[in-house]
Design a protein that fits this description.
Layout lengths: L1 E3 L20 E2 L10 H14 L5 E6 L1 H12 L4 E7 L15 H8 L5 H8 L4 H19 L7 H16 L2 H4 L10 E2 L4 E2 L1
Length: about 190
């Protein structure tokens, strides 16, 4: 489960790994865009069930990490393992750093450019920026070849889901969130 444009570098809709791996990302499917974490999780369950799978390993990156946690909490029997990357608990945690005005501004931009995206997802070092440029060159090549693109309604749905996520009081998140000194996962939450 990835963010916009299949940003996990999943050529042809596949994640690197075993031949049976599949990827679900915004822009990789057709249909009515979802606009909540629950909606995205329901869509992921529909995708998994359409493939005839009874249990899956999930890798959720960015918004996909929040969705993977929501899916695992609601359908624990469906999830064997979950990896949450570039994400966090499904709500705002007290003491967590606030998103900067720059980050919030970029997230709300309808026309965020490459520099905006690099700022959000890559450390501000020459090496990281070079890797970011390589990554987005691959994504651009895929898009130019007719790969998945994110529609404006899908982008608005993602923004709505993020808005709901940030507005969720910690008291609603806390029952499913357990801090740990080592990375670990349970069917209801991943913690670090």
């Amino acid at each position: 489960m990835g963010g916009a444009h299949g940003d996990l570098d999943a050529p042809s809709g596949r994640v690197r790994g075993s031949p049976g791996d599949r990827a679900l990302c915004v822009g990789c499917t057709t249909g009515e865009p979802r606009d909540s974490l629950d909606g995205f999780a329901e869509g992921a369950v529909e995708f998994i069930e359409a493939l005839g799978l009874t249990q899956v390993d999930l890798l959720g990156w960015s918004l996909g990490g929040f969705v993977a946690q929501r899916l695992a909490a609601r359908r624990p029997e469906l999830v064997r393992r979950i990896i949450v990357a570039g994400s966090g608990p499904t709500g705002w945690v007290p003491g967590a750093p606030e998103a900067s005005e720059k980050v919030l501004g970029i997230m709300a931009k309808p026309d965020a450019d490459l520099e905006d995206t690099l700022y959000l997802f890559y450390p501000e070092t020459d090496a990281a920026r070079a890797l970011g440029h390589e990554h987005f060159d691959r994504v651009s090549t895929r898009l130019a070849a007719g790969g998945p693109a994110v529609s404006e309604p899908a982008a608005q749905g993602m923004l709505a889901a993020v808005g709901q996520l940030l507005a969720t009081p910690f008291g609603q998140v806390q029952p499913n969130w357990r801090p740990s000194s080592t990375p670990s996962c349970t069917p209801t939450a991943c913690t670090t």
